[in-house]
Queue: 2 jobs
Job 1
Amino acid sequence: MWGNQSNLTKLDDPEKSKVVGNWDFIPLPPTKDGESVAITGGFAFSASPYSKHPEETLKVLEVIASKPVQKGFALAWGPVQYYKGLYQDKEVIEHNDNIEKLEPVLDVVKNRPPSKNYAELSGVIQEGIHGVITGTVSAEEAMKNINQRAKNLD
């Protein structure tokens, strides 16, 4: 029906991947209090506030978010979809060899921060993280910079 196009499967295909058997999904490292989180990605649909047909647009989004359509996405593109129940669906499991790798992440996943300028916010966060990793700025200074720059975006 949908075929197996899972990106997870491609990671373990020796003809397409150099990381076969050497990858995983993990939550972000825990805080000092032991809390660990994962953040949802950018695969999303939305309605423009300027749509000339807002009611019809919302109906389309309801169809896209429906369980049957989300299952189709899980079969065609991999298991990172809206309905957690799909991760236990027999057909989805058959089409996604490494689906069990997502469970530790799903238990602690949170939505990314809401922002009308998320692309810019993401860049600011990435720059801050890069600075800490490369040692050009302390974690405390990076957080101050990220917070200040993020406030200026909205």
Note: The radius of gyration is 19 Å.
Job 2
Amino acid sequence: MQVELRPITVDNWEECVSLRVKDDQRAMVASNAYSLAQAAYEPFWLPRAIYAGDTMVGFCMCNLEPHAWEETSEYWIVRLMVDAKHQGKGYGRAAMEKMIAEFNALPDCPEVWISHEPGNEVERLYLSLGFEHTGRVIDGETCLKLRFSR
């Protein structure tokens, strides 16, 4: 599955905020509009659109520089969503693989963290990519991490 992670720009931000997850997933992920506002005020977050060819199919957000989070310096993937009409086609996995490769290429990044709402089926994807449970919970979300072997 080939996807690209592209910047959110003046030309595509409205398309980004119009993407929607399935109704039963809405409580599991912040809206793209909220995420873009968060990135505007917390500039260490990098919001990007997930494209399959010329079609925007999803959204992701991470930090490619370490961020002080609860007194530690960690790398995070804080958003991943695929539009309802594009789910089940492998776009989420392909986007995660792209982000993981970017983190793995950073010389000072020993691991990457991700979290999810309890009961979110996306956990299966994260575990299949090598993430492991940490026992850590932040704001009610289950935290997982992927360690890189160097």
Note: The chain has four helices and nine strands.
